[in-house]
Amino acid sequence: MTARQPRNTQLRCDDCGYQTNRTTKGIAQKALDSHSCDTHRERVARHERRLARAAASGPEAPCQHDGKHPHGDRSRYTIDGCRCRPCRDANVAYNRQLSRQHLYGRHPLVDANPAREHVRQLQAAGMGWKRIAEPADLDYAAITKLIYGARGRRPSVKIRPTLADKILAVQLDLAPAAVVGSTGSARRIQALCYVGWSIPRIAEAAGVDRQALDGILRGRAILVSTRDAITSTYERLWNTAPPEADRSDRVAATRARRRAATAGWAPPLAWDDETIEDPKAKPAHTLKAAGPKPLDEAAIVRRVEGDHRVQLTNAERREVVRRLHSQGLNDQEASRLTGISDRQVLRDRQRLGLPANTEPRRTSDTNQEGTAA
Description:
The protein is mainly alpha-helical. The chain has 18 helices and six strands.
C-alpha cells in the first residue's frame, strides 16, 4: 500500500488571504488560480459572525414558573426561552451528552408507563395533577405531557429516569377540598352510634353539620376536610362512653344504640384501620354476636308514664314491670297503668324473681314520682 504524500506545498493569495496546502506545487497553483476572492471573504466574514454570536450572550428571558428555573439550567432555555450564555451552554452540554450516549448505544430514557399509571392511580384517589407536580418539584407541563400529550402529540412514551423517580415517589396527599368516598366515614359514625353516641353529639364533636352526617350515612361523597374531622372524632370517642347524666342524654344514647342494633351496624372493634375505608371489607363480627339489643329508654319512660301507644320489646316490657314493682305497684295497678295484661305482668315479675306487692298504691302518686324522677 502506497504511503500518502504529505501536503507540504503552501500557496497564499495576497489579495484575500486565501491559503491552500497541496502535495505538489502544480496542484497548489491550480487551486490558487481557481479560487474566488469574494467567496473566500464572505466565508471568513460568516465564520467571524458565528464566533461572535457564540461568544456573546443572547437575550435573557424571565422565569415564568416562580423562579424554579435558574440561569444555566436547560429548562430555562427550553421552557422559558432564555438565550443567555449560561442557558445556551447548558443546552449544548445536554445535546452533546445525549448524542454521545446514542453513539454508545445507550438510551438514557425509560418506559413512561409505570409513572403514568402511578399518576392515574393518584388521580383516581382524588389527587389533582397540579398537586402531584408540587411535591415532586416538577413543572406542570411534565405531568400534562405524560398524561395528555402536548401540541397535538400523543402522551410521552419515554421519559428521563430522574423524572420517573420523582413521580413514583409522590404519595397520596389530597387537598382539603377534594371529594372522596364516604365509606370509611359512614362506618365510623355507625360504630360510634353502636357505643351510644347520637348523631347530634357526633356532629357537635366533629364540628360538622348534622345534615352532612345524614348524607354520609346515605352514601353521599364528602370533602377530605369532612372525612378528616370525622376520623379525628372517631379516634377520640370510639372507646369512650357517651354522657348519660340526665334523662335526655340517656334517651339519646339509648336511641343511638337501638338504631345501630336495628340497622345491624358494627361496633368499633369490628373494623381494622387498614380496611375500614375499603368498600369490599367486612366487619370482624356483627351486632348479632355482640350481645342483646340495647333498651330504648325513651320508650320505657313513656310506657311507665301511661302511654299505651309505645311499642316495647320483651326486654323493655320486663324493665317496665321491674320499675313499677320498685315503685310499689301491684300487678293489677301496673296492668292498668301500662296497658299490659295482668297475666303478662305476673309472668314478667316471676321471671325477674320479684315478690308480689300486696299493698295497693294509687296510680296518681306513681305518676307524680315518675315525673319528678
